[in-house]
Design goal:
The protein is of the alpha+beta class and 345 residues long. It is built from ten helices and 13 strands. The chain has two domains: 150 residues, PurM-like, N-terminal domain (60s Ribosomal Protein L30, Chain: A), CATH 3.30.1330; 186 residues, PurM-like C-terminal domain (Phosphoribosyl-aminoimidazole Synthetase, Chain A, domain 2, Alpha-Beta Complex), CATH 3.90.650.
Length: 345
């Protein structure tokens, strides 16, 4: 029987259904090209292709939640997944879909310039794409596609985590969600009594702490042997943790009190009654590393102006995702692929 369409929500497909689609239609077991090192699987956000002396890393991701700074989002969201493999981002393309009757030359130029300036700042070359005005949408949509390169010995995969590895979280959580709410729902924030200073600070979350994990991924992988890295997108921290665990066939034990919920996100989560642990958080990087080297990596990141901390460990208990609360009580870590921010947008 087909899935009832009412079961599908805005955002990611449920892991169970997505896995069925991957197994049936795009699994690596169906691939004939032996150069494909990593194909489609839950937890791995980029493909890896053997090009001889190096690996080519390929990623595509759309921007659908935002309108302002859409080019900046499109480039950085794709960059984040590429650098999580240890690769250097190189070549960017985009498909830009513009709503009929709702655009003008200034908006088109703004999007093009936003993409160009962001790529230039990261040393990425724009190599092509496609732009069209289309019906059926009410705002611009940008679908990015990014290629990068990595030395074979420096490749990092989400599926590489080991039991007992420390799990490090950089910056804190609910970063991107905070910027999106402030930029897309400013009127609602004002109606709820937030002042201009608070809203302005939330808008700046786009840049500070920032939705980019480029620097921390580069610093970490250049100096330590990492077992995995993962960017926190839709579904937030808990979904991101589950995706690494699924990819690596491991369990989790997370200490809730060690998770840094930043001040503004904490306030927004209370007012809007959304779970900060399940809200989109690009800008937060999960790193797994042998427990012996975790503190050294944290110290190195701190010296480079990046806060981080250990929030738990992977375990050998497959598919057992546990969280330890403030009273040291264990419970199942509940996660969802449907992002909490969809309650507001």
């Amino acid at each position: 029987m087909r899935e009832n369409q009412n079961k599908f929500h805005i955002g990611k497909l449920k892991h169970k259904f997505l896995n069925k689609m991957l197994e049936n239609f795009v699994s690596t077991t169906h691939l004939k090209d032996s150069r494909v090192v990593v194909g489609s699987q839950i937890g791995e956000d980029a493909a890896v292709i053997d090009m001889g002396d190096k690996y080519l890393v390929a990623k595509t991701d759309p921007i659908t939640f935002v309108t302002g700074e859409i080019g900046y989002y499109a480039v950085n969201i794709n960059v984040n997944d590429v650098v999580c493999t240890g690769a250097t981002p190189k070549w960017f393309q985009s498909t830009i879909l513009l709503p009929a009757g709702l655009i003008d030359e200034d908006l088109i130029e703004y999007i093009f310039k936003n993409i160009h300036d962001t790529c230039k700042s990261l040393g990425i070359t724009v190599v092509g794409g496609h732009t069209e005005i289309t019906s059926g949408i009410d705002r611009p949509i940008v679908i990015g596609s990014l290629l990068g390169e990595v030395e074979k010995e420096q490749l990092v995969l989400s599926s590489g985590a080991h039991a007992n590895d420390s799990i490090i979280l950089t910056k804190g959580i609910f970063i991107e969600g905070t910027a999106i709410i402030a930029r897309e729902k400013e009127d609602i924030l004002k109606q709820k009594g937030f002042d201009d200073e608070f809203i302005k600070k939330c808008k700046k979350y786009l840049y500070n702490p920032g939705i980019s994990i480029y620097n921390e991924a580069l610093i970490s992988n250049d100096n330590f042997l990492l077992t995995s890295m993962h960017d926190l997108t839709e579904g937030g921290l808990f979904c991101g943790l589950a995706e690494i665990a699924i990819a690596s066939d491991l369990g989790l034990l997370i200490k809730k009190e060690q998770i840094n919920v930043l001040p503004e996100p904490l306030e927004l989560s209370k007012v809007f009654k959304i779970n900060p642990y399940s809200t989109i958080s690009s800008g937060s990087l999960l790193i797994s590393i042998n427990d012996e080297f975790a503190e050294d990596l944290i110290n190195l990141l701190r010296k480079n102006g990046i806060s981080s901390g250990v929030i738990g460990n992977f375990t050998s208990e497959k598919r057992e995702y546990l969280i330890l609360d403030e009273n040291h009580k264990k419970s199942q870590m509940s996660y969802t692929e449907v992002d909490e921010i969809t309650k507001i947008l």
